[in-house]
Amino acid sequence: MLLVLVVVALLGRQRRRRRLEQRFGPEYGRTVERAGGRRAAEADLEQREEKRQRLQIVPLSPQARPRYLSEWRELQARFVDEPSQSLLGADRLLSDVMRERGYPTDDFDQRAADVSVDHPDFVENYRAAQAIYLADQQGEATTEQLRQALIHYRTLFAELLETDEQADKEEVRGERDGAGSGKADGRQQ
After folding, report:
1. pLDDT tens across 70-108, in order?
2. Cα torsion for 46, 47, 49, 55, to the nearest 10°?
3. Number of domains in the chain
4. Residue 18 and residue 92 in one domain
C-alpha cells in the first residue's frame, strides 16, 4: 500500500512538472534556477497562477488599440534623434497598456511575474529591455543596446495589444507604408 502511495505521489509530481513546464516554457527553467530547486520554483509558479486568477485582466478597447499604435509609431520614429527618450517612452507606453489591461504596474518584478503567466514567451524580452533601460538611466547603455531594448519592449507591446490582425502587428514592427523590414532606427534589425 505504501508503495502505491509513493508511486501515485511521484506521478502527481511529474504531471505537475509537465503542466508547469508547458504553461511557462522558458520561464519554468529560469524560475528553477533562481529558486534553487524545482519544488520552490513550482510553488512560485503556482502562486503566480493563483494571483493571476484574482486579477481582472481585460482586452483593450477597440478605441485604445489605434491610439497605442499611433503612440508606438511616434516613439519609434523619434529613436534616431532621441534614443533614450524613446526607450523611456516605450517603458511608459507598455506600462500604460498593462495598466489598462488590468495588470498591477507598481513593482517591476511583480509586473514581470504577472505577465509571465499569460505571456511566458515574452517576459524574458521584457526583463532584458528593463535591464537595458536601467543601464541607460545610469548612462551605461550604448545606442545599439537601446535599439535592442526597444525591440524587446516591442515584442511584449504587440502581444499585449492582443490582436490577430496582421496589419496591426506589422504596424507595431514598422513594416507598413514602406517602412521596410522592422527598422526602428533606419538599420536592419
Report:
1. 999 999 999 999 999 999 999 999 999 999 999 999 899
2. 170
3. 2
4. no
